[in-house]
Design brief:
Strand 7 and strand 8 form a beta hairpin. The C terminus is likely disordered. The protein is elongated, with a radius of gyration of 29 Å. It contains 10 helices and 11 strands. A 6-stranded antiparallel sheet has the order 3-2-1-6-5-4, with helices on one face. The protein has a 5-stranded antiparallel sheet with strand order 8-7-11-10-9, sandwiched between helices. The chain is α+β, with helices and mostly antiparallel strands. Helix 2 runs antiparallel to helix 3. The chain folds into 3 domains: about 110 residues, 2-Layer Sandwich (Beta-Lactamase), CATH 3.30.450.40; about 150 residues, 2-Layer Sandwich (Beta-Lactamase), CATH 3.30.450.80; about 70 residues, Winged helix-like DNA-binding domain superfamily/Winged helix DNA-binding domain (Arc Repressor Mutant, subunit A, Orthogonal Bundle).
């Protein structure tokens, strides 16, 4: 709250943001004002009650005597002068920045234009930071999507591919749970991640079978859709492959604002899964990893290196953990790639899933 530094008489500054629950104090500075963080503001609080003032700053004197400002008084703050600045972005009201003084009933006139300019600069900077963060998140998720596609290509197993789809969807963290249901040759299976128990997963599986039918012909023409599953908003993405296998990938959507983004990634993930399953159905086994043979194919030291590789450690970090030279690590990695039939580290992502599932079965 840089506005507090412009005049020593300004002893508090608040940012009141518009939230789904209403107007709330999102940030506050000043010895007394800090206690107001996360407090909800009554809509009668000026300037919230004056829509005609929404495009300009509001200056109020003797605010401590005005009953409309009782919010401050209830919390032991008696501002004699207040200036409220609208935080507008693309003609949308984002919130209000409020500064005040308990020591003087008059604040310098120059605070109104200077403060208004500072508020807009702060808001634009915040939006730029938010946009950068979103871009970074998209780049990271696209990279993850590419890596999971490479991992699916290595796995060459329908059930494992579907499990990987569910696990990757859970990693995107759009909600509390993910569920994948699929049917092939009259048999239906379900896998779930997160806060979905077995009973709920079974009920959802039965509902999918009822809606799509035994052969899943509806899956061919269905598009991603939002529906309610036991009181939760879920995005359901159908997929269908040529050998008669069909299914749906369902992800819980906690925030409605993320539904459009989730649709893009879930659709891409389902399409990728379809392509890889179809490739498996054609009988290709290029690069397939026989995980059960790893312990026989690799030496004990190579298994140690492999475990660290799939956890994302660099060559130097592996050398430090295993007390061997970086050159020796590189030799072990070359041997591992040759023995299990992969070309680079990205393909080893598949082993994370396969190793974990093998341990669960033991």
């Amino acid at each position: 709250m840089e506005l507090c530094a412009f005049d020593e008489r300004v002893d508090m500054a608040l940012y009141i943001a518009k939230c789904p629950q209403g107007w709330m104090v999102a940030a506050a500075s000043g010895e007394k004002a800090r206690q107001l963080r996360s407090k909800r503001i009554d809509v009668l609080f000026p300037p919230l009650s004056f829509s005609e003032m929404s495009l300009r700053s509001v200056y109020v004197q003797d605010a401590d005597l005005d009953p409309r400002f009782s919010f401050f008084v209830r919390h032991g703050i008696r501002p004699k002068a207040i200036i409220a600045y609208p935080a507008m972005y693309r003609e949308t009201m984002e919130g209000w920045v409020i500064i005040g003084s308990e020591t003087t009933s008059s604040l310098p006139e120059m605070l109104r234009p200077v403060g208004a300019a500072l508020v807009q600069h702060w808001l634009l900077s915040a939006k730029c930071i938010e946009a950068d963060m979103k871009m970074d998140r998209h780049l990271m998720r696209l990279s993850m999507l590419v890596e999971i596609g490479r991992a699916m290509r290595v796995v060459q197993n329908k059930e494992e591919i579907i499990r990987m789809m569910a696990e990757f969807a859970a990693e995107l963290a759009y909600g509390d749970f993910v569920c994948a249901v699929w049917s092939s040759d009259g048999q239906t299976a379900v896998v779930h991640e997160g806060a979905m128990d077995v009973e709920m997963a079974v009920r959802y599986r039965d509902d999918v079978c009822r809606r799509y039918g035994r052969r899943g012909e509806k899956a061919k023409s269905q598009v991603p859709a939002l529906l309610h599953v036991e009181g939760k908003t879920v995005m359901e993405v159908p997929f269908f492959v040529r050998d008669g296998l069909y299914g749906v990938l369902a992800v819980h959507i906690k925030e409605a604002s993320e539904a459009k983004e989730a649709e893009v990634y879930m659709t891409a993930l389902a399409a990728m899964g379809e392509m890889m399953i179809n490739s498996t159905a054609r009988g290709g086994d290029n690069g397939a990893v026989n995980i059960e043979m790893l312990s026989e194919q690799l030496t004990a030291r190579e298994m140690d290196v492999l475990e660290l590789l799939i956890q994302g450690y660099s060559n130097r970090e592996i050398s430090e953990r295993l007390f061997i030279s970086v050159h020796t690590v590189k030799n072990h990695i070359t041997n591992i790639f040759q023995k299990i039939g992969v070309n680079d580290r990205s393909q080893l992502i598949a082993l994370v899933y396969q190793l974990s599932h093998r341990r669960q079965r033991c």
